[in-house]
Amino acid sequence: MPISLNKIYMAIDNHTGLVLEGGGMRGVFTCGVLDYFMDAHIEFPYIIGVSAGACNGLSYMSHQRGRARFSNVEMMKEYRYIGVRHLWTQHSILNLDLLYRQFPERILPFDYDACFANPTRFEMVMTDCRTGLPCYLEERSDPARLVLLAKASSSLPYVCPITYVDGVPMLDGGIIDSIPVVRSVSQGYWKNVVVLTRNKGYRKTAKDMRIPSFIYKKYPKLREILSHRNAIYNRQLEMVERMEEEGRILVIRPMKPMVVGRIEKDVKKLAALYDEGYACAKAVMESEEAASFMKSVSILSDKVL
Questions:
Q1: Cβ-contact 237, 198 below 8 angstroms
Q2: Is residue 303 domain-resident?
């Protein structure tokens, strides 16, 4: 039974976080979720996003409803900014110049003033190539650095160049921390809404394999993490499902079988996934389960994590 959203407003307190998984073009689901949040005037004191989750979350931070959808759906149809042809011109499967310069500066202007004025903390996750460890960074005043963090968080291994942030070589945060709920808890946000881009029960089935030494030869720790990437992600999914069953997080995820790939270019599929994200967010956030969860005061223990 739908509930009054006033119950949700009253229960989102200073200990509530929003965790946004990446997933490439599957992140269009998240665009729908975030547009619903904007329509319902639901805001959080803390957000942490990974890869596509970080990029789409920025338009939520700047309160630009529809911007993330437009860049992922309509702009995909017009610009086709994903494809192997970009490997020849930019050494990346993505048209980086279009996504991180032309879009925010000219084609889909990003409202930096609104973003920086937003009191919400917004962290983006990336992987330090030197250590293989996650880095959690935020930016509150420099537009160029904000875009750089989003770019680093989304720099897919193998098919995108390494991005340097403050002189540190970085790649996609999903390599090591795809669903950073533990980070959110460590920052004092123990009541989390988690947006996933995979169906419940999903697990990677491909076996992990050793990365040859000639790949990322300067970064042995990165190779080690990449060698165990599937196992790391599966463990995170298991943790999330356990926490969900125990009522410790509220999860919004696709309910229909996922048919959108990481580098999907089918605009009809992308538009349908956006609509599903909006509908799923509405169904979850207006449920009695959400109202009950938001009222909860139980603190996550180290044992759970």
A1: yes
A2: no
